[in-house]
Amino acid sequence: MPPMFAYIVRRLLYAIPVLIGVNLITFALFFIVNTPDDMARMQLGVKRVTAEAISQWKSERGYDKPLFINAEAAGAGVLTETIFFEKSARMFIGDFGQAEDGRDIAREMRTRMGPSLAIALPTFLLGLFVAVTCALTLAFFRGTALDVWGVVLCVAAMSISMMFYIIGGQYLVGKMWRLVPISGFGDGLDAWRFLVLPVVIGVIGGIGASTRWYRTIFLEEVARDYVRTARAKGLPETLIFFRHILKNALIPILTGVVVVIPTLFMGSLLTESFFGIPGLGSYTIDAINAQDFAVVRSMVFVGSALYIVGLILTDISYTLVDPRIRFQ
Q1: Cα 264 from Cα 121, distance rounded (Å)
Q2: Which of 87, 91, 304, 318 could covalently link to 22 via disulfide, CB atoms 3.0 to 4.6 Å apart?
Q3: Using CA atoms, how far apart are residues 117 and 83, in angstroms rounded to an integer?
Q4: Which of these, 293, 34, 115, 194, lies nearest to 284 by C-alpha position?
Q5: Beta-bridge mates of residue 98
Q6: Structurally, how many domains does the chain consist of?
Q7: By the 8 A CB rule, do 95 and 106 touch?
């Protein structure tokens, strides 16, 4: 078996108990700390809730079964005819059940993944390019007025809430200048009009922290011995930065970049909610507001699985940028 394939298989096997643990913790939070009776009271209204109404609500949604073991069932039903199997264990095969409004959760996820990617992928790629470019420029002109004022602007940008960028952008670009719609979403190519403003705001909102972080990475590489050796050989400073420093700085950059991949699929909670993008982020916010526990559980599980995938991709990407690292 090739070393790389064996490494991936081993990492996936390590991920299984982690995902099972997350599933168990999520189940405990939703069904032990917050019992089905509590869920029924929150859905029906705390005041004047009868025992009959609670019982009917639980029966309609399959919450009237035992949590882990059904002693009254026969055969495999002892384990399968339980809340844990029907509401948590079935998530491993992609069966997330139905939301409170009766819609299939898995189908909703597939439908909403497109709008989430449409806004998150351009924001991610453009933001990464702009931040790395700005950080490399500041590191190249380190110690100059450009570097000092660049860091000041980065700190100032980090200190401003994302809410300010969203509301300010909607008011200035959407309402005053009327360049693009303030909120909503379109089909096909018409969707770009609704994506321009959220993407630009997403890039501006994250450029301060990213640029400052990447600048620190580049400055650490500048002080390495191989950089002094390259200068001693007479290599131009621009060549040193773009061929050597940028390449060697990719490892710590990948640590933060690849782990962000799950958020591309899960969507941005604030951005999608304020811009009316029908993605997974707004879907999660709507489920929390509606106290739709089935949707919230499903989103937590999917987010955990994607985060584990992101960590595996991070480990694999290390070997692509640093030949010294081998699969062990």
Answers
A1: 6
A2: 304
A3: 33
A4: 293
A5: 104
A6: 2
A7: yes
Whether residue 103 is contained in a domain is answered as no
- Could you give the 3-state DSSP secondary structure of residue 104? strand
Alpha-carbon gap, residue 134 to 196, rounded angstroms = 21
Tell me, yes or no, whether 185 and 262 share the same domain. Answer: yes
Between the CA of residue 52 and those of 39, 40, 67, 283, 299, what are the distances in Å?
15, 11, 20, 31, 31
Identify whether the C-beta of residue 314 lies closer than 8 Å to the C-beta of residue 259.
yes
CA pair distance 303, 266, nearest whole angstrom = 7
Do the domain assignments include residue 151? yes
What distance in Å separates the CA atoms of residue 182 and residue 167, rounded to the nearest whole number? 10
pLDDT tens, position by position, 195-214 = 999 999 999 988 999 999 99
Query: Is 229:165 a contact under the CB 8 Å cutoff?
Result: no
Reported as a single tens digit per residue, the pLDDT across 240-282 is: 888 888 888 887 787 777 667 777 766 678 888 889 889 888 8
What is the DSSP code (8-state) at residue 30? I
Question: What's the CA gap between 328 and 24, in Å, rounded?
Answer: 30
CA distance linking residue 295 with residue 283, whole number of Å: 8
Contact in structure between 214 and 131 (CB atoms under 8 Å): yes
pTM (global) more than 0.90: no
The whole domain housing 18 covers 3-93
